[in-house]
Each structure stands twice: as structure tokens, then as C-alpha cells.
Write a structure and sequence with these properties.
By secondary structure, the chain is mostly helical. About 70% of the residues lie in helices and about 0% in strands. It is elongated, with a radius of gyration of 17 Å. The mean pLDDT is about 90.
């Protein structure tokens, strides 16, 4: 019974990872095009979704809760368990360090590019 549940967890986590990656890419694209959160609803989502993920991970000791669930499903209490499809393990190990940096950089660029007062324009 745990193997089908693990595959469901992996599918959900893969979808979450894809949405999170889309949000990070969208932040940089929105900054480049000077989109503003007041007029771009997708930008609001792209700002909130990664922040919610980071808060959830921080509350869980910088470990993804789905990683904990995967460990429970297979009965392993230490070490890493594959809990996502398609992404190489070596990449997944750097996500906790690169994801927050990418998010905060993207959010800062959105704010900087969308803020007309930084150039003295009103």
C-alpha cells in the first residue's frame, strides 16, 4: 500500500516543484517587463507561492514536509528519499539553498523595476 501512496506523493511534489519553478521564472520575466503586482494577478501568485513554500520549509527545519512524508511511507527515518520525478538527485540537494536566493532576488528585482520613484519619476 505504501508504494502507490509514494507515487501519489511524488506526482504531487513534482507538480508543486513545477509550479514553484514557473513562479521563479515568472518573477524574473515580470521584472524585465516592469510588471506591477497591482495590475498582474499572476505576479501576485508568483510572489506568494514561493514565499508560502519557504515559510513551510522554515517551519519544518528547512526540510520539505513531503520529504518527511516519503521517509515515513517507506519506513526510513534518516537520509534522503526520492520524493519527486524527473529531477536528478544532485539538483534536488541544492534546491534548499538556491530556491530562497532565487526567490528573494526575483522579488527584489520586481520591486526595483516596478518602482518609478527610484529614478525620480512619479
Amino acid at each position: 500500500m505504501t508504494v502507490p501512496l509514494l507515487h501519489i506523493l511524488m506526482a504531487v511534489h513534482t507538480l508543486i516543484g513545477a509550479v514553484s519553478t514557473f513562479c521563479l521564472i515568472y518573477l524574473f520575466g515580470a521584472a524585465y517587463r516592469r510588471h506591477r503586482p497591482k495590475t498582474d494577478k499572476l505576479l501576485i501568485f508568483a510572489l506568494v507561492w514561493p514565499l508560502a513554500n519557504l515559510i513551510l520549509m522554515a517551519a519544518n527545519g528547512w526540510t520539505c514536509p513531503l520529504q518527511n512524508a516519503a521517509q515515513v511511507l517507506i519506513g526510513q527515518h534518516a537520509g534522503w528519499v526520492r520524493d519527486i520525478y524527473l529531477v536528478p538527485e544532485s539538483w534536488l540537494r541544492v534546491v534548499p539553498w538556491t530556491y530562497p536566493i532565487g526567490y528573494f532576488l526575483g522579488a527584489a528585482l520586481v520591486w526595483w523595476r516596478a518602482n518609478p520613484h527610484r529614478h525620480g519619476r512619479a
